[in-house]
Amino acid sequence: MYKNTKNIHCYLFGKGTINQIEEVLKDGYRIYFIDIYFKDKKLDLPLQKEDEIIYVDSSNEPTTDKIDEYKAYLVNKNKNKPSTIIGIGGGATLDTAKAVANLLTNEGKAEDYQGWDLVKNPAIYKVGIPTISGTGAEASRTCVMTNVKSGLKLGMNSDYTIYDQLILDPDLTKTVPKEQYFYTGMDTYIHSFESLNGNFRHTVGDAFAREAIRLCKEVFGSNDMQNDGNREKLMTASYLGGCAIANSFVGVVHPFSAGLSVVFKIHHCEANCITMRGMKEFYPNEYNEFFEMADKQKIKIPTLRKYITNINEDTFKKLYDSTIIHEKPLINALGENFKDILTYEKVKEIFTKMLKD
Ligand code: NAD
Ligand code: ZN
Predict the structure, then answer these.
(1) Are 95 and 137 in contact (CB under 8 A)?
(2) Which of its termini does the chain have fewer beta carbons within 10 Å around, N or C?
(3) What is the chain's Cα-based Rg?
(4) Cβ of residue 99 lying under 6 Å from some atom of ligand 1
(5) DSSP state of 63
(6) Is there a common fold for 10-173 and 178-353?
């Protein structure tokens, strides 16, 4: 059986397109979720007095509790039937806006919808405006959230989660700090090579992924990864990488990275980069390319020692459990018998490699 793939219907692309925002907003009051970085910056938005602005603290990745809190806040203020929800920020903010848009039209709690195709009713109409490039959250059909109680880091994978409209304005990414720009940008490179190296291939997905990789290599192989042209290319790569993943799955990097995020609370994109230290045997070419690009941009990829110096057995067990739980990507990368390859000892060995330069 083939999966019916949904991609973004409409997008505005180019420098300054944020100024056309009014064209894509619906009449009625609107809810804006905006990354906290922009709280004291001038974003020229067509605000109406009944609109709500919620600043998202992206120093923490979204949790199901936080999404429930936003829903309760809007319900209490009688602001739960907006015409449009707008997400302006990185993956954390874009995902928050997606999750709240789903939850306002579906009863219950965010955790009820962690999984695949559980959302029953179409979401509120939503517009995504990325301000940092790489995760592909602007294009994907998920919104990653952690359920702190159960430890489950899983999104609402649904066609209803996909943005109705994007504004892709590379001017918005000018202010991203260098390290963050590299870590997040690499997420699209990593998603894309994981999908190209997987068992579940799809020619359309491959085409998106190949082009995303080509653009990443241009950006991170150049002398100034953050100049105007490169920010435009990376925004394109991020979008294409998100589309690639809609047709496929990630591979070995993301499950290990998720283990680091769950156990040490390391942010997704930095966790991916640390994970790359242990990935030579699975992706030898990409491992070399990745560290060459980091060298070229003078980015020092952290080791896991930034978070822990010595991993004890109890922590290894937690790391193993939160890695091996990601069966779909691991089957995609290593086949049905992935547990024969990723034995407990092997997983320990890989995490230990991340401690070393
Ligand atoms: P982020 O949202 O975590 O933000 C990272 C940092 O960049 C924050 O400090 C933020 O304030 C800052 N920032 C953002 N834009 C800026 C700008 N223009 N100028 C200066 N600073 C700016 O960033 P991210 O790396 O894009 O997202 C990571 C999140 O995305 C994680 O929560 C992860 O789980 C999620 N994710 C989602 C998907 C998906 O398909 N939905 C895929 C991968 C990752
Ligand atoms: Zn990712």
Answers:
(1) yes
(2) N
(3) 20
(4) no
(5) B
(6) no
Domain ranges of the chain: 10-173, 178-353
CB atoms near residue 288 (< 10 Å): 11
Out of 3.40.718.10, 1.20.1090.10, 3.90.190.10, 1.20.1250.10, select the CATH number for domain 178-353. Answer: 1.20.1090.10
Ligand 1, atom 21, residue with closest C-alpha = 176
Closest among 163, 251, 158 to 205, alpha carbons compared: 251
Beta bridge partners of 153: 146
In the reported structure, the alpha carbon of residue 11 is separated from the centroid of ligand 2 by a whole-number distance in angstroms of 22
Closest-lying ligand 1 atom to the alpha carbon of residue 134:
26
Q: What is the C-alpha separation between 154 and 97, in angstroms, rounded?
A: 16
pLDDT above 80: residue 1:
no
Quickly list DSSP for 208-273.
Answer: HHHHHHHHHHHHHTSS-TTSHHHHHHHHHHHHHHHHHHHTS---SHHHHHHHHHHHH---HHHHHH
Buried b / exposed e along 15-48 (16+ C-beta atoms within 10 A):
eebbeebeebbeeeebbbbbbebbeeeebebeee
pLDDT at 151 over 80: no
CA–CA distance, 142 with 156 (Å, rounded to integer): 5
pLDDT, tens digit (0-9, with 9 covering 90-100), for 214-227: 999 999 999 999 99
Give distance in angstroms: CA of 340 to centre of ligand 2: 25
Instruction: For CA atoms 187, 206, 211, 298, give the dihedral sign.
Output: positive
Model's pTM, two decimal places?
0.97
Predicted confidence (pLDDT) per residue in 159-191, tens digit:
999 999 999 999 999 999 999 999 999 999 999
